[in-house]
Amino acid sequence: MIMDEYDVLFELMAQPSRYSAEEIEELLSSGDTREVYNLLCMAGGAVASNGEDADVDAEWRAFARRHSGGGLRELWRSRRVAAIAAIACTSLAAVAIGIAIGVRSLERGETPAEVPAKELAMEAVAEGTEVLADKGEMADFSEPILFEDAPLKEILRSVGERYGVEVEYARAEAGELHLYYKFDPSLPLRDIVEQLNTFEQIKLRLQGGRLIVE
Amino acid sequence: MSNVKVIEGLFRAHYQGMYRLARGILRDGDAARDVVHDVFAGLLSSGKGAEVSGGYLIWAVRNRCLNRLRDLSIHERAANLYFLEMREYDDEAWPDEATVARIYDIIKNDLTSQGRRVMELRFEAGMSFSKIADVLGVSENAVYKHVRHALVIIRKNLNDNG
């Protein structure tokens, strides 16, 4: 019986443990089989992401319970008191309006009053360094660079070259952290810093034209 | 406004989108929930709530999801239908909203009700193909035929429309 790419894939899906890592790689190395496998991955993602919506209120309550120390405990307590008191509606509405304005202004790229001076300084430096970098047309940075399991210091070396900033490490070992990152040199430096700061163990800040790794 | 109140605002405004993204990548509701909660826990402990945007939150979720997948063996990837190589998440720009919407539209509108059910049981409920066959009272071969049909239609649609 001649097996097409679908048959090959389904046989593998039925019992992947029967195959060695090399055999799986070989089976999925053919263009057609890999294409169908990737389509199946994507179809799975499409179905999963369109499942039932989360109950955001319940999730917030669960989050607040789990992180009930410090500020959240105060907020939680005040909410319970407010729920008992008849004035809850007006105070919560005021908070909600404040949050809505804050979130919208953040998304528009405006700077809300609460943004600390550090962030303002970072923005100023980022705008300046981007202009400087644009003056030198560096062919190496004409397209995104994919870092796969690369140490942070290697990634930041490229970032430093691209934007003309010095990189400083508060702790040398921070540069040894390995990660998977797609560096898009067409983005402003502040976006790169923001992207890298989304990694749990990384904290970067811009200060006087230097990129500090904390 | 305090950091906590800012975080609550961000949580309420962006939780749904972040959760859907995480579930689309991980296909596991509990893991997706953990990832999203972790992002907000990070904001809470760092005090950076006021500094972030919706775009940051989406990036944070994607990064954390990919971090979870990075160390999986090839067997685990194949068994859970994750891309075999991390770079494919970027090559495919996955998950991009337009492609997700197109694929889901095909599954919702162009499959038989049984075919759609097979896809939902596999990817929403996380059942194996053999378990799906049991639940629906059909042969495993019939389940594969439904999946095959779904993939043929999706492949044709994506290839025809670029």
Topology:
The complex is a heterodimer of chains A (about 210) and B (about 160).
Chain A: H1 5-14, H2 21-27, H3 31-49, H4 56-66, H5 70-84, H6 88-107, H7 117-135, E1 145-151, H8 152-163, E2 166-169, E3 178-183, H9 189-197, E4 204-207, E5 210-213
Parallel strand pairs in A: 2-5
Antiparallel strand pairs in A: 1-3, 4-5
Helix pairs in contact in A: 1-3
Chain B: H1 3-26, H2 29-46, H3 54-70, H4 74-80, H5 87-91, H6 97-109, H7 113-123, H8 129-136, H9 140-161
Helix pairs in contact in B: 1-2, 1-3, 2-3, 6-9, 7-9, 8-9
Protein architecture, described:
The complex is a heterodimer of chains A (214) and B (162). With 214 residues, chain A is mainly alpha-helical. Chain A is built from 9 helices and 5 strands, in the order H-H-H-H-H-H-H-E-H-E-E-H-E-E. Chain A has helices at residues 5-14, 21-27, 31-49, 56-66, 70-84, 88-107, 117-135, 152-163, 189-197, and strands at 145-151, 166-169, 178-183, 204-207, 210-213. In chain A, strand 4 and strand 5 form a beta hairpin. In chain A, helix 1 crosses helix 3. By secondary structure, chain B is mainly α. In chain B, 77% of the residues lie in helices and 0% in strands. Chain B contains 9 helices and no strands. Chain B has helices at 3-26, 29-46, 54-70, 74-80, 87-91, 97-109, 113-123, 129-136, 140-161. Chain B is elongated, with a radius of gyration of 18 Å. Chains A and B meet through helix 1, helix 2, helix 3, helix 4 and helix 5 of A and helix 1, helix 2, helix 3, helix 4 and helix 5 of B.
